[in-house]
Design goal:
The chain is 60% helix and 4% strand. The chain is mainly α. It folds into two domains: 320 residues, no CATH class; 83 residues. The protein has a four-stranded antiparallel beta sheet with strand order 2-3-1-4, with no helix packed on it. The protein is globular, with a radius of gyration of 27 Å.
Length: 476
């Protein structure tokens, strides 16, 4: 049996340690920005108002109109809603039917202007209520009172997402070789698990290695299909986000973040697609351009990158047939439709129906808002971070929720929702990957060792036969 191997470089352990430390630092920074409002009680010295809300009793509708205040059009963009039992009413001691003006995250100037207007309406019972509980308390109440029965349909959706994700990759690989579903599912499931386990998105290299072990497809050719997937997904999400922004009501806070995210996605993945098309048209010039650009930093790195690009372009010429391309885009559509639907579906678990009169901020997401949250999350997942995208996952969900929800909801039920959906996705992918690794009799230790040592085999050569295991394989 031929072995294409090499000894690990002397500095490989230092390199891996640096990657892990860098990924953890990125995740810690993102987690800080996610949770900074959770532990932060109101402070009168800060730029934002030290009040949760103002509520008004006994004000007739003409008086509201005179002040420019309507339930469907609040002054200065402040949120106005009717108080309902089981929401913020419990901690503010409000009665059902009172009108609540939420002042969270509003500059003191806006607060002063509103107070002046309300002061002109005599005998209306205007009261400014100071914060009594931190968002941390409300977040824990959201977690405690959540309806976790919604996890069952969401897990079914995640299973459908896994199948769509696996089958579309199989159609993309079919231009090189048709891989049986069992082997394809093993490579995809274990690869998705390693994408969670490894930092800085290094798990992207796992699927090409795993499918190369189970077919005649070379790792470099399989890696080309992974890159194509990422580029196509990036362009789809960028286009989706730009279209969704058109229908977001004007004046909502944070809309510029959505536009910025879409522009970044278009820039990164549109540029990648343009370069691949140029490389297909002018292969030699593209390789020379890479050598000339990367060579300014390191000649050795330039040779390696140029070799990878050259291999990629060669594999790109083995595109699947039109019918397989159609099925690839069909499964891609199913993949993203299920993702967005699942985001809005799981939000139903945090509607505070089980909270009774306890402190709880209900979270409601329409299907439209669910797709906005999904698109913004994908932008965040572009950032290499710690294993499981910890930190970036929660941060970008919170950023998207802040467009549609008041901060009292975002930094309580919104953070609870972000953490639950993150944990459920992690556990689902880890479970699928662990089961498939056991069924294929592969240990993670063996996979990590071979990924680091084996080189790509010559084109057309069959994968080496695995020796029978001496002892029972384990996942760890």
């Amino acid at each position: 049996m031929k072995v294409y191997g090499r000894r690990p470089a002397a500095g490989s352990h230092v390199k891996r340690a640096f990657q892990l430390v860098l990924s953890i630092a990125i995740s810690v920074a993102c987690l800080y920005w996610t949770f900074r409002h959770i532990f932060d009680p109101a402070d009168p010295q800060k730029r934002h108002a030290p009040y949760d809300a103002a509520f008004v009793q006994g004000m007739a509708e003409p008086e509201w109109e005179r002040l420019g205040v309507r339930v469907d059009a609040a002054p200065q963009g402040l949120a106005v809603r009717e108080v309902k039992s089981g929401s913020v009413a419990a901690r503010l001691n409000l009665a059902q039917g009172d009108l609540l003006l939420e002042l969270d995250d509003r500059p003191l100037a806006a607060l002063d202007e509103l107070r002046a207007k309300l002061a002109s309406a005599r005998g209306t019972g205007v009261v400014l209520v100071q914060r009594q509980l931190t968002n941390w308390d409300v977040m824990w109440e959201s977690l405690r009172s959540a309806s976790y029965l919604w996890l069952f349909p969401y897990l079914l959706i995640l299973t459908g997402i896994h199948l769509c994700r696996t089958l579309r990759w199989g159609n993309l690989l079919s231009g090189i070789e048709k891989v049986p579903f069992r082997k394809l599912n093993e490579a995809a499931g274990i690869g998705f698990m390693l994408l969670i386990v490894l930092p800085l998105r290094l798990g992207e290299f796992a699927r090409p290695f795993l499918v190369a072990q189970r077919s005649r497809i070379r790792r470099s050719a399989a890696m080309t299909t992974v890159v194509l997937e990422r580029i196509i997904d990036g362009i789809i999400i960028a286009a989706l986000l730009r279209v969704l922004v058109i229908f977001v009501p004007e004046g909502l806070p944070g809309v510029e973040r959505l536009t910025l995210g879409a522009n970044i996605m278009f820039g990164v993945f549109g540029g990648g697609l343009a370069f691949l098309l140029f490389a297909l048209w002018q292969r030699e010039r593209a390789v020379a351009l890479v050598r000339a650009t990367a060579g300014r930093i390191s000649a050795r790195a330039a040779d390696r990158v140029a070799e990878v690009v050259d291999t990629f372009v060669g594999a790109m010429r083995q595109l699947p047939r039109p019918g397989q391309v159609f099925r690839f885009f069909l499964f891609t559509a199913g993949y993203w439709v299920l993702n967005g639907w699942g985001m809005s579906l799981l939000a139903n678990a945090f509607d505070c129906t089980n909270a009774g009169s306890a402190v709880c901020e209900p979270l409601h997401l329409t299907v439209f808002q669910g797709y906005v949250v999904l698109a913004m999350l994908v932008v965040g997942l572009m950032i290499p971070a710690a294993p499981g995208a910890a930190g970036t996952f929660q941060l970008f969900i919170v950023l998207a929720l802040s467009v549609f929800q008041p901060s009292s909801v975002v930094y309580s039920s919104g953070v609870a929702y972000a953490n639950v959906i993150w944990i459920v996705q992690i556990l689902q992918q880890l479970t699928f990957g662990a089961v498939l690794a056991l069924l294929s009799k592969q240990s993670l230790k063996d996979i990590f060792r071979k990924m680091g040592e084996e080189r790509d085999r010559p084109e057309g050569e069959a994968p080496p036969k695995e020796e029978p295991p001496v002892r029972e394989a384990s996942v760890l």
